[in-house]
Amino acid sequence: MNNSDLQIKKVKLLFTPGPLTTSTSIKEAALTDLGSRDSAFISIVQQIRERLLNLAHVKAPEYEAVIMQGSGTFGIESVISSAIPANGMLLNIINGAYGRRISQMARIHSIPCIELEYEENQLPDLLEIELLLKNNSRITHVALVHCETTTGIINPVTQIGEIVSGHNKAFIVDAMSSFGAYEIDLKNSNISFLISSSNKCIEGIPGFSFVLANRIELEKCKNQARTLSLDLFDQWAGLNVNGQFRFTPPVQVLLAFNAALDELVNEGGIKARAKRYQENNSLLISGMRKLGFKIYLPNELRGYIISSFLYPTHPNFSFESFYSILNDKGFVIYPGKLSKVDCFRIGNIGQLFFIDIHMLIDAIEETLIEMQVKI
Ligand SMILES: Cc1ncc(COP(=O)(O)O)c(C=O)c1O
Fold this sequence. Notes:
The chain is α/β, with parallel strands linked by helices.
């Protein structure tokens, strides 16, 4: 075994927004080889699709769950490139890097897009959205990131959904890092398409994204996709005809995901998971405050998924050293993604518990001492 093998074998705790620390039983569920046409596999896929709709408080046939191979971005691009018709227009509400990524998709697919961009520590202005929709009849779809993982800010999805539906537009919500940890009622929030992925708050392993869609809006996607592999309608139609994927599915990842859904139920559902994440987050924030770190977002804007911390101003602080010392101790944190401020991020989702947060705070304290950084 060489050095890098040893490095990989060492167990690390992931304080990131995904891939996350997962439980042994979920990893074990991925140890079975099953053919993609096996009836057992087809029935598991069907179960997963139903269970996902249940989590969003909706049911088929009014809503449908479509699984798309690839990471979360593939699912979002599938919606953006399939749902907006040739004569359509997107209003993209942005307050972070993931919102900006949606505009990038629109540009690549030559989809007309109006951007309503806010500071990364600012909530969207509801009146401005209302006015824009009133004055732009060409807009057909509105996109919003629920938890903007760039900072951890939580956008008011239900309030914006009400405005969007009041103007008869379709509402696309990137709930990548929040679905499974926040109760989101698709119907009540007037969401036409919600996207998340296997390796976020359901706590599975990476390999696919899923789209929960209002059936009427999904049916409108027929024959308007701009790509073959990310054609949302055809993917859904394929799954509906014989339960099979059009192209090779991530079989083991889906088996692990079904086990992850069992674990979510055993934990007590979204409510209980949200409580654990909230407690993790409160402990993280108070521990980091005690060490002297400053939090980028004010309390009222912060969710409980991921937090952004300002770099300490002490001259001995370098994020690269801080990251690699912590990594060697077995704690993986995450770099910042803010456009104007130097921050790093710590996630508290996945199989992380009180004891893990305590250990992380202790490791950060030791790291600061080793780096001779005083805050
Ligand atoms: C809000 C949000 N959108 C999109 C993505 C992209 O997902 P992926 O990296 O799985 O493609 C992420 C990833 O963390 C995210 O947090």
